[in-house]
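For anyone still unconvinced, we reproduce a single protein record, the chain in one-letter code, the fold tokenised, and leave readers to judge:
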Amino acid sequence: MSTLGVAPLAKGFRDGSDDPVRALERALAAAERGKDDKAILWRVPGARTEAESARQRFARGAPLGPLDGVPIVVKDSMNVKGLPSTDGTSFQTEPAESDAEVVSRLRAAGAIIFAKTNMHEFGIQPTGVNPHHGTPVNPWDPSRIPGGSSSGSAVAVASGIAPIALGSDAGGSIRVPAACNGLVGLKPSFGSIPLDGVSALTRDLDHVGPLAWTVEDATLLFEALAARQVDRAVRVRSAALLVDFLDGAEVAVVRAVRGAVAEVFGAIEEVQTPLAAWAAPVEFVIVGSDAESTAGRHLTEHAREMAPDTRTILRLGAGLPASDRHRAAKLRAGMRREIDALLEKFEVLLGPALGCYPPLLHRAARSHGVLDMAAIAQLAAVEFVANLTGHPSCVVPCVRDGLPMGAQIIGRRGDEARVLAAARSFEEKFGPRKPARWHG
């Protein structure tokens, strides 16, 4: 059993050596120690009352389930009643009138939502840089980006503040920070988890999912959010390596991912998805044009309050003709057909989680943001594909030393069980690693 994440808490709650109130107090103390790392934005005032209720349930021998009493943080794009959902901005400060559906489902499972986490403004980039609230500190190397847009959620888990977290993903925004911080990140099948009360960047790319230390923790959180069970007896019988996902990647990434895949699955067939080469421009066009309608209205009143990178992307999106969106949609449909065809032959497809190790954070980015489209494409284009196609995708650590790197696993729509089974196979070899910068 991992000493990180949900499992040790659940064991302590069951045998009486720990309880939800003490677990919450430790999480809050860790958040205070790590406050300068900018992962946490808001504390939830009612968390202690909920923890006390959970403690009483365990005392009666009647816990609600495996997440009962577990402290959890959620991204600040998700409504928690009585708290703002800034969506990474400086100006959206009105408190939410009700919980997002995913928050309601977590509460129903007994999870203790104790804080909301920092994020890239509007979730519009995968770097995680935020000039308004501060950029969360990558606990593996503070000179590097934390990954985004769910940067605060990932850093809160990786630095020991929270055992598990909730993020959202329209273009790698769960999986990029998971890979940058040495975590498991799951983007489920499109539509498998409700988005009511969650700020969406796009019309049909956004997903909600877990950031966790272990595949089992990610599975437990997915089950609570999707309201369905995952078959843990499933095994992966056929896998293929997406070699074009390695095109343009850093040599060290190619070496690490190829070596990890060979160690876990042996010699497997190498396949290609030619239209994936268009993932970055297609993603940029769809995000730009959709974000202009979902967030662009704020340009009228709040342009000066936005980070320059956000403002630029929204203005570029406003200038895109409808014909560009139409062409992007056709390419996207072709990508979906390519992936579906490969998944008729193979149960899962494997590749890198990122095209590069977490890049260095430019000094000026902390106050002005950063917009380097070529660098963003190298970082996250391999993640864009599963957003564009709607297939489930999980990243899991695949190195034993140095900076974190992850393998990406893509599966058939609705078949999270097999994707998670493949992730467990990587985890058995590489397991979670704790960084030196630790607040827990």
Q: What stands out?
A: The longest strand covers residues 112-117.
